[in-house]
Design goal:
Strand content: 15-25%
Shape: globular
Number of strands: 16
Helix content: 10-25%
Distance between the termini: 49 Å
Number of domains: 1
Order of helices and strands: HEEEEEEHEHEHHEEEEHEEHEEH
């Protein structure tokens, strides 16, 4: 039975979820998209060169938001950061960023639901909100990897009314970009980290399942996949099974070829949570396959991947305000106080959070508890937790995890 796709439309307008309207469509059959079904990606760009458009297949063109050699690249801005911490002196740090050719691996980033457009699928353009999300989520990984981020016709709020059809359009663009990336001569021997949040994580769940998991050669290229806020499935209380047959969850420092996945909550998730709970998972209509019966949503404790499970997480964001729109509202309503500011391009807010995976009310989530007088993160809706901040709450820990995985990948 198909249920209403508009019951949480206000939540989606704030981009706290991809179809987090609590709208679960009719299940679809378990199928993997065959190569013949992948149609043309978006066309019409006039950019050229290694960082611009490039052919993906006959009649198709991939447009890049971020790529090596691209002039206006939001994933390669300055990283100088003001670090604040309660009881400690404020300091300014600048993460080292080698030249692109000297970064040991690549990152392939797919952004979350962010478009302000009122179309079923957004046009693949570098709109201000798209530029902002790449800067907020992907730019700091450029200290470790060359960042590739395709523009794609993502599912919008309106597309949530026809989620299966709109998701196929979005996925065609993502998989075309992936194949274009893999076809580049300068990627032939490089490992790759997949990074996605919310809708971006769902698109990459499909891509890993269809393009990487069944192919040993592609699995060997996978450094890791950071699939946050996308309800990745595993067998109950396991690091394997679920969405993927051969790609497990990451469970130890330096492990490669694995997945990091979680959804953050500042409070215990309620029954019917949109993230972390398999029984009320709203992402199913976007997947193109039915998640295995009896599977649970995965949760990875990020500090464990640094051999320090109790590593506190800090909220790290750009000081430039997010572009106008629903996602700006969601970000600023989720901060523990006023929007963090500083004289540097980035700021780490003074609050610190203990992170631990928790099972409650049928959900499996990463609980963030404030430490040492820190202020709690705010939740727009208890069913979605702190979804907007999944990446930024602990961003530098994630970058450190990828750096360690990249070293292990190169050394193997």
């Amino acid at each position: 039975m198909r249920t209403s796709t508009s019951c949480r439309l206000a939540v989606v307008l704030l981009a706290v979820a991809l179809v987090a309207s609590g709208c679960v469509g009719e299940p679809v059959s378990d199928r993997r998209t065959p190569p013949a079904a992948i149609g043309p990606a978006a066309t019409g760009s006039t950019e050229t060169g290694s960082g611009g458009d490039e052919p993906a297949a006959a009649g198709s063109t991939v447009r890049w938001l971020c790529a090596p050699g691209r002039k206006a690249d939001p994933c390669s801005g300055p990283l100088r950061t003001t670090v604040r911490e309660r009881g400690a002196r404020t300091r300014v740090v600048t993460p080292a960023r080698p030249r692109p050719a000297r970064r040991p691996v690549d990152c392939f980033y797919v952004y979350p639901t962010v478009s302000n457009q009122f179309l079923p699928n957004a046009t693949p353009t570098a709109a201000p909100e798209v530029v902002s999300i790449a800067r907020y989520q992907a730019a700091r990984f450029s200290s470790v990897c060359r960042v590739f981020a395709p523009l794609y016709r993502q599912v919008t709020v309106l597309g949530g009314l026809t989620p299966e059809r709109s998701a196929e359009v979005a996925y065609r663009d993502v998989v075309a970009a992936w194949r274009a990336y893999r076809a580049r001569r300068d990627t032939a021997t490089r490992g790759v980290v997949l990074i996605g949040h919310s809708q971006g994580a769902v698109m990459l769940r499909r891509l890993v399942r269809a393009e990487i998991d069944p192919r040993p050669r592609e699995r060997r290229r996978l450094v890791s996949a950071l699939l946050l806020g996308g309800n990745v499935r595993v067998a109950p209380r396991s690091t394997a099974g679920g969405d993927f047959r051969s790609v497990p969850l990451c469970g130890r420092a330096g492990q490669t070829g694995c997945v990091v996945a979680y959804s953050t909550f500042a409070e215990e998730p309620p029954p019917g949570a949109s993230f972390g709970a398999a029984a009320s998972d709203p992402t199913t209509p976007l997947l193109g396959y039915r998640p295995p019966a009896g599977s649970e949503v995965a949760c990875t404790r990020p500090g464990r991947l640094l051999s320090a499970p109790r590593t506190p997480l800090a909220l790290t964001v750009p000081t430039e305000r997010f572009a106008a729109g629903g996602v700006r509202v969601a970000y600023e309503a989720s901060y523990p106080g006023a929007r963090p500011t500083a004289a540097t391009p980035w700021v780490a807010a003074p609050d610190r959070y203990a992170a631990r995976c928790q099972r409650a009310n049928g959900a499996h989530v990463l609980r963030l508890r404030p430490l040492d007088g820190s202020r709690p993160l705010r939740q727009l809706d208890p069913r979605v937790g702190t979804h907007t901040l999944d990446v930024n709450a602990g961003l530098d820990v994630l970058v450190a995890v990828v750096r360690r995985q990249a070293r292990a990948y190169v050394a193997r």
